[in-house]
Amino acid sequence: MIQPLLELKNVSITRGERQVLCGINWSVNRNEHWVLMGPNGCGKTTMLEIISGYLWPKEGEVHLLGEKLGEVYLPDLRKKIGFVAPWVLGRIQDNVPVEDVVASGFDASIGYVGKISPKVKSQIHHQLKFFEATELYSRSFGQLSSGEKLKVILARSLVSKPHLLILDEPFSHLDLSSRYHCYNFLDKLSKTPQGPSIILVTHYLEDICPFFSHALLLKAGSIMVSGKKDMVITPELLSHTFHVSNNFKRPYCFDFVRC
User: Fold this and answer.
1) Which of 98, 213, 214, 235 is buried most deeply by CB count within 10 Å?
2) pTM of the model
3) Under-50 pLDDT residues of the chain
4) Which residues, in sequence order, are CB contacts of 23 under 8 Å at separation 6+?
5) Looking at the domain assignment, is residue 123 inside a domain?
6) Rounded CA gap, 106 and 91, in Å?
7) Is residue 165 part of a domain?
């Protein structure tokens, strides 16, 4: 029997007296690409922190890449997970060379320690080339635009060839052109043999490119609905999740997005 890449079993967590997540049951299988949506404060980022082992649930079990969290050495497991989030960008100092930023993905750290070997340099160039960003190699992180920084962070997240790629609102500071290009890069990645399964947290329907296969709507710390994207991202369910009138005319992707 093929094990899920990710499985949450009856996961609950509280912060102070507030229950942030309640009875979460969710699994992600290989070759599935998921979108997570829900109002601010519903628990999306908390779920990602639990999945990545940065936060421990009060109740339940988390199984990741066939290992049970709490019974595995997390630093080694994190090397198999790509993670992109605003806090990652915020912790990288402006004077850090781009090659060091990308190289840090090999050990899931923020700063790379030690001399970069020719083999590592080759893999860094390969990932930057994938994102059409090889010209950024010799620059420092602080010299880059928001779109260029995201390309570098995406390259960092993929350099160790992870099985799972987690994206926590990665496009929030990008202009229209940069978002469009990143959509196409992710579409290309989704078609790469042996590429990672992708989990995207977003507030924007246009971020939901056609390659996403599944979706999950979170509301007040509980899963309202999850499953095949076309059955979940509907005007009725979105309206109920976000407490707005039924005026969602399109479930995903504007016409100009060619992914």
Assistant:
1) 98
2) 0.90
3) 251-259
4) 10, 11, 12, 60, 222
5) no
6) 17
7) no
- Residue 207, CB-side half-sphere exposure with 13 Å CA sphere: 23
Q: E strand or H helix at 17, and its extent?
A: none
CA–CA distance, 195 with 256 (Å, rounded to integer): 26
What is d(CA 105, CA 167) in angstroms, rounded to the nearest whole number?
Answer: 15
Retrieve residue 25's tokens.
């049951």
Q: What is the number of structural domains in the chain? A: 1
pLDDT for the residue numbered 248 = 57
- For residue 259, the model assigns a pLDDT of 41
pLDDT of residue 252: 44
DSSP letters for 26-83? EEE-TT--EEEE--TTSSHHHHHHHHTTSS--SEEEEEETTEETTSS-HHHHHTTEEE
- Given CA atoms 41, 53, 14, 23 in this order, what sign does their dihedral have? positive
User: In which element (H, E) is residue 97 found?
Assistant: none
- Residues of the chain with pLDDT > 90, as a percent, come to 58
Task: Kindly state whether residue 194 falls inside one of the protein's structural domains.
Answer: no
Range of the domain at 49: 1-79+199-259
CA atoms within 13 A on the CB side of 12: 9
Q: Of the candidates 224, 226, 238, 230, which has an alpha carbon nearest to the alpha carbon of residue 212? A: 230
- Is 24 among the domain residues? yes
**H/E run at residue 166:** strand 164-168
